[in-house]
Specification:
Length: 95
């Protein structure tokens, strides 16, 4: 168990800012990237904890815009056009 923690804390991780594998632990919870010279506060023994990954993905998902295919007025226009086509088909006027 202790060996696993020591291996994970001395390993280099991928920097979330520049994408290079230069993120290294400086102290408990302090991680420093040697490439882009940014310092981040993350997990004590690993760069990314499971709760941090969950929180970051939830924040990213909430920031994304919601795709709405139709606005209310466009939906009404499409519905009215469909009703008109159906009436024409029923009367034999449409193709």
């Amino acid at each position: 168990m202790v060996k696993k923690i020591e291996i994970s804390q001395h390993a280099k991780y991928t920097c979330s800012f520049c994408g290079k594998t230069k993120m290294k632990r400086r102290a408990v919870g302090i991680w420093h990237c040697g490439s882009c010279v940014k310092t981040a506060a993350d997990g004590a023994w690993t760069h990314n904890t499971t709760s941090a990954v969950t929180a970051k993905s939830a924040i990213r998902r909430l920031k994304e815009p919601v795709d709405q295919p139709f606005l209310r007025s466009e939906t009404c226009l499409a519905c009215n056009k469909w009703v008109k086509i159906q009436k024409e088909k029923k009367n034999g006027e449409g193709t």
